[in-house]
């Protein structure tokens, strides 16, 4: 953001200028205090700049309807839907999903960096906030045949893309445990760029969970039981409650969630086919499932 735009945002927040859009008379969800507010919401340049009483160039009367933050899918492979990011957005935005964090390792396994850059460009056309984690294991293991091989040096320039949040699910257990040269460099590059590192700890022992945490892996979406979830949480990890087209783990993991540790859990679909997205929904369906479980 340049200085003049920054100044303008502040002037709108201070009510010195009208906002581009004001949603009037809304019942706003305060997620921090966990309560409802009766307020207007001022939006300028796509950013909420004020909650209270505001005037706007355009005003929409919510007439007491509830205004809540959009859902976030914390880990998804858009390629599993078999459509481009822009078309994918048409399936999930009506379901209340406004942000996804995608790992394009499926297209990367076929076409490497070219495939990742294609996804980045296509994502910018979508009516959806799409952030990226860089595929950490292309191919998944050294003896697998793939259309591309991505080394640390190949991924490094992509960290400069504003949509890139970190290194995607690290699934090469042997490479991490044995601190293999290129895997070690990928992990260090992510740390040196102050980026996040996602894990893939399917069935790992406590010893290997410790190895992954030492390697700065912060999340796991491969948890299938409440016990596995608690082992990760006690080591300071975040656990994703997954409900996709094939892997359906939310019901079995939910018993691990309680008032003390709830903020260590979040939702993801991982891989969900387009017909399932249209029939069942996305994160909205997972919220409904959680609500039914109390």
TrEMBL record:
User: Can you provide one Gene Ontology molecular function annotated for this UniProt record?
Assistant: adenine deaminase activity
Q: Does the keyword Membrane apply?
A: no
Q: What residue stretches are annotated with the Amidohydrolase-related domain?
A: 66-272
Q: Name one Pfam family in it.
A: Amidohydro_1
- Which UniProt keyword terms apply here? Hydrolase
Can you name this protein?
A: Amidohydrolase-related domain-containing protein
In its UniProt entry, the species of origin is given as Bacillus safensis
Its taxonomic path starts at: Bacteria, Bacillati, Bacillota, Bacilli, Bacillales
């Amino acid at each position: 953001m340049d200085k003049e735009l920054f100044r303008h945002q502040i002037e709108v927040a201070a009510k010195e200028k009208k906002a581009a859009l004001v949603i009037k008379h809304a019942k706003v969800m305060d997620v921090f205090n966990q309560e409802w507010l009766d307020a207007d919401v001022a939006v300028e340049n796509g950013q909420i700049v004020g909650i209270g009483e505001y005037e706007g160039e355009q005003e929409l009367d919510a007439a007491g309807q509830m205004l809540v933050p959009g859902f976030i899918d914390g880990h998804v492979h858009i390629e599993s839907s078999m459509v481009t990011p822009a078309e994918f957005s048409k399936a999930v935005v009506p379901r209340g999903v406004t942000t996804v964090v995608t790992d394009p390792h499926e297209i990367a396994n076929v076409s490497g960096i070219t495939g990742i850059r294609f996804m980045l460009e296509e994502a910018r056309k979508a009516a959806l906030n799409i952030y990226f984690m860089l595929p950490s294991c292309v191919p998944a293991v050294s003896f697998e045949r793939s259309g591309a091989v991505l080394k640390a040096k190949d991924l490094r320039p992509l960290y400069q893309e504003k949509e890139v949040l970190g290194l995607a699910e690290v699934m090469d257990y042997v490479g991490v445990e044995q601190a293999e040269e290129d895997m070690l460099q990928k992990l260090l590059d992510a740390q040196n760029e102050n980026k996040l590192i996602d894990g893939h700890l399917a069935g790992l022992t406590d010893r290997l969970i410790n190895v992954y945490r030492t390697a700065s892996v912060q999340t796991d979406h491969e948890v299938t039981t409440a016990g596995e979830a608690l082992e990760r949480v006690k080591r300071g990890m975040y656990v994703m409650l997954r409900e996709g087209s094939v892997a359906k783990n939310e019901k079995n993991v939910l018993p691990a969630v309680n008032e003390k540790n709830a903020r260590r859990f979040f939702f993801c679909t991982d891989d969900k086919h387009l017909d399932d997205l249209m029939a069942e929904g996305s994160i909205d369906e997972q919220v409904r499932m959680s609500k039914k479980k109390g």
